[in-house]
Known about the structure:
By secondary structure, this protein is mainly alpha-helical. 51% of the residues lie in helices and 0% in strands. The chain has helices at residues 34-52, 63-75, 80-97.
Amino acid sequence: MPKPAPLVMKKGLALPASLTEGVSMQASPRELPPAAAASEVALSSVVRTATDELVPLSFKVSKHFNRAFRQVALDDELKLNELLFAAFEAYRRQRKNS
């Protein structure tokens, strides 16, 4: 009896669902169809470009501020860093106008 396919791919070998159509789950990156391999490279470069520009920012705030900040981000469907960017830009505009 043949060994069943693994349920989880090895790190670095998995593809997004849209790229796996017609591709065997046992395929290695060298065995991928050219279009799927090219799409995977394009996708990873787009993702890396967005996160490569971000650097960690670490500081402490009160529990109340933390909860309120997260709640505003949740209510407005924003990521925490998006809310921080928006607040900073609003502060800069206000400071410039005063």
